[in-house]
Structure formats: C-alpha cells, structure tokens
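Researcher: Please translate sequence to structure tokens.
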Amino acid sequence: MTGPTRPPPVRWGICGTGAIAEKFVRSLEAVPDALVTAVGSTSGERAESFGQRMGIQNRHATHEALSRDDAVDVVYVASTHERHHDDTILFLEAGRHVLCEKPMALGVAEATRMIDAAAAGERFLMEAMWSRFLPSYVELGRLLDEGVIGRPLLLTADFSFAVSEDARAGHRLFDPARGGGALLDLGVYPLQLSRLVFGAPDEVFATGLATESGVDGQTTLTLAHAGGGVSLLSVGIITPGPCSARIMGTDGSITLDPFMHATQRLTVEGTHPQVIDTEPASLHYQVPEVHRCVREGRQQSDVWSWADTLGTLTVTDRARRQIGLRYPSE
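Model: Translation complete:
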C-alpha cells in the first residue's frame, strides 16, 4: 500500500548575492520541499561566486537571464530597496512568482504597480515580512485574540542601532539613491507590529532627524488608532535603542524581548502572567506559506496580504512627507 504522493519541490531563484540572500538560502535547508536552482546578479562574477559557495547550479550574470530560467518557480528578490520595483515586475512579467524583501517598494505608487503586475499575470506576490510568520508572532497573535491583556491601548516599540561614523560613507543605509534611512529599512518592523495590534492608524505624526547624506537617521512615529489605541514607534541608524516592544492593555501587558522583530520570548504580566519561549528566529518560516499559496493558485497571502503591504507604505509615505524625506527616483 503506497502513501500519499508528495508534491514536487518548489524551485527557487535568488535575485541578489548580498548577506540577506545568503541568509535566506541557508534558512531553506529547514524546508524539505524547497529547492534553490538558480541565482542572478548584475555581476557574473558575483553570481558565480555565490552559486559556488551555496551549491546553486544555474548562475546568471543578469536579472533578465534569471527571469528567463524555466527551472525557477519563485524568485526571492533580495536586491537593494530602489531595485525592488523594477526587479519584481521583471520576474512577474516573465511568469515567475515573487517573494520580495521588505520594504517591498519605496512607496504606495510603486507597490501598486507591482501588485497590478501580479494580478495581471495571475502570479503570487508577497512582501517578505518574515517576522509575522515567526513562532513568537504566531503566539502573540493568539494571545491578543484570546484577550489575555484585555483591550490593547498602547504600544511602544523601538528598533534602533548606531552605525559608526567611519562606516557610514558608502553604506546603503546612508545612501538616498538606494532607498536608505531608518524609516523604510527598520520602520516596517514596528509598523507591522502596530498593524497586528491595532490595525491601520487614523492619524500619523512623524518627526525625524536627517543625516548629512539626506536620509533620516532617526524617526519617531505616533499613530492614533480607532477606539483610542496609540502606537509610539522609534527607529534609528545613528542612535542605539532598546530594540524591544511592549503592548499595554486594560488587563495587563506583553513584552517582546530584543530584538523585537525577531524575538524568542514573550512576557505576559497582569491577569494571566506567563513567559513564553519559542524557537529561534529564521527566515524560513515564511516559506511554507509561499509554497501553499503557489500550489493553491493564490496570488496573495492571508497572513501578510497586499493590503498589509500597502497599509504600512501608506504610513511611511505620510511620515516621509512630514519629515521631508524624498528619494532621487521620485
């Protein structure tokens, strides 16, 4: 008697050869039905080196060549922020599904065009908001749904660190042409947490401190939500911070240990005190959701949807206008 037939592996192409691309490929070792078949870069030398190091057979010197590789089902877009829009549309129009690193785009206008391309080609597209798929965040969602802290009223969250001054020259985080700054690179993490707790905000108030290169080195957001909830969020690349988060409700609180976007520990205080320790953070937890959606013919995930991506970018667009942050491509 034979068992159920296993579906064929989902074949991944990797767009980009930086640190996050390597981290993602290594994390796929934990997903038995994921197979990395190709890598593409803007440099043949980098693609060859990455492919040799990571054991990837197909190595492409251009993103266009990767888009034409029929041994690829899904492309993980790990290029720098300013390339996400063009790279994602390239792969979608070539018939590939896409998991795009966060932030998926520089703003709502770009993201809307990317989503339109996915819809037109009936392809799957998701922003790689990997935090939302972690065991700790799954537990957090359960705790909030069960009302263990009553009605949430206040969220405080920080994700800040200081890049040394001698390392800032040429660093992508300080380069406006590459979509640098604290808000887009780090802000998506506390914003996705705020969205989990309260949903979309009604009002956005932002203050920022610009660096010499013109990007924001530090930004603070105050979000007012329907029903009276408030989110106080801070991000920085020139100021070290606690990198933790706390949700306060009518019957208690939940603390997310550092780093808040990749926490392993949740501490509940109040009516239902408890400490929950989870598995270490990893990029691979989002991958089974991608596989499920692709196999079921879904174009977006219910866990992190197109509306979620557009919602966070709506906030960052409003915040950027308030602090005067613009990018050369706009």
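Researcher: Any highlights?
Model: The chain has a mean pLDDT of 97.
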